[in-house]
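are you around this afternoon, could really use another pair of eyes. what follows is a protein written twice so to speak, once as letters and once as structure tokens for the fold. i want to understand how the tokens follow from the sequence so walk me through it. anything you notice is useful, everything is just below.
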Amino acid sequence: MSEVFSTRTAEPAVQGVEDFDLARARDGDDDAFTRLVRPLQRELHAHCYRMLGSAHDADDALQEALLRAWRGLARFEGRSSLRSWLYTVATRTCLDAVETRGRRALPVDLGPSSDRVVVGDVPLTEVAWLGPYPDAGLADGPAGPGARYEQREAVELAFVAALQHLPGNQRAALLLFEVLGFSAAEIAAMMDTSATSVNSALARARRVVAERVPSLTQQRTLRRIGDARVREVVAGYSAALERGDADALVALLTEDVTWSMPPLGHWYRGIEAVTDFAVRIPLTGCGSWRHLPTGANGQPGVGCYLWDDEAGAHLGWAVDVLTLRGGRIAEVTSFLGSGHFAGFGLPDALP
């Protein structure tokens, strides 16, 4: 089978060309199969991320799902749409992965915040960490007529982190119903269960998510703040770090701000603790910074680059995802590691 993962997006054909390609794909034409699935790949990839909490795991799951679909295409009888069938395959693939890999976490899930800076914090390699998701290509609006969440709302950090506290079947039911707009009957068929079981899973999942996700989503917050203020906050945050300006940074933060840095386990809550950390570590203890704005999880983000003497350049260090409230930064989640950069289209280094 030829490589089918692509960043292209389009509306899927329903008849005509799709029927022709479906017949050819069943006869073993992998190019026809690629044409069939390409328009749906981006939304399927986002679904896999919501299920698994990692863009890298989503890559693997989507490739495995498409391979399963390719091998099982002869069993697709056309009783449902091709989109529904592919979501069935992708969801079952993700449920298999959930069983073997468990849930992903953020530092706030592991223990209380630290009151003072922890110098020499080391990565916790035994923890499966939640990862960031690039905004590029995310569709606006719901993916189905019955969907409650916008596509960008459904990748916000708070929402994806809350999903990780659900068992796989509840996670899948919530996403298929609330994000993608499938009916309980359709989900029951996808998951080989009853509509009663689906409705029960939905009720339990909604309770958990409601407890963990703010009532005001980042999408609504960002619309209230306005693009100009969002750009101003991102630029001010970047400039303050590059200048080592603690006062300018603090002026951008809420009183109850949090800062976490997966894969480091310690995290900070409140302006005093966050200021202590910021002054001791990024502002004075790391060296020269450079930054590029980006978009992550439907939220403003920043690619952070730290000077490396040996390389003679600023190298990719972290992708910071900013959660805003009232025109200020309420959360900084710094996803450490240059491995995140390629997915965001960020360069490996800056001068």
